[in-house]
Protein: Isoprenylcysteine carboxylmethyltransferase family protein
Organism: Pseudomonas migulae
Amino acid sequence: MKISARLAFFAIVSTLAYLGLAVWSLGGWAAFFSHGALVVVVLATLLMTVAALFTEVNLSSGEREDRANRWVLPAFGVIGIASGFLPAYTDRIDFWTFGGEGVRWLGALLFIIGGALRMWPVFVLGKRFSGLVAIQPGHSLVTEGIYSRLRNPSYLGMLVIAVGWALAFRSGVGLLLAALTVIPLIARIHAEEALLRAQFGSEYEAYCSRSWRLIPGLY
């Protein structure tokens, strides 16, 4: 285990609480696990949590941090809690839902793809991957591999996960929450870019000129 014991404990507890909230919202264990796609989503979530225990993700403010951007953390937290409850609940009462089991399986597939896209960069960046917008000691710019054409693959993974989660519950409300995630996410991206531009100057400018910020071919 590479991350701190405190972060590991938080990751495990928050994941179990999040899944427990969704199970309760859908009507209990029997109702939740009667859907194969939701079983896959749970297994994928647990696998991502276990994988995170072997990363070097941290909450270090490093050598320099944009503390003004910390507001996105509680914003993500509020949206996350809402996402844990509302999609499953609207599925249970059949409010603003669409499609059937095929939509659930599409959601499970996107959830897995998003999870891989979210976790891969975490392993690539190692100690440079912080929950805060910060420059870490010995920080270097990564512009190859998964970062060669996309500057924020992990954040794209977050969005794909959110869409996949919403579809797994056939939830229009879940899709709205996924869209709402874009607001703090874009704010964080801009804060990170400003910090990286100040740190790496022309090297980062050149990288930006040949890569996409979040969605290839669009943004």
Summary: The beta strands are 64-65, 134-135. The helical segments are 5-26, 29-32, 36-52, 72-93, 101-125, 153-168, 172-200, 202-209. Residues 149 and 211 are 4 Å apart (CA to CA).
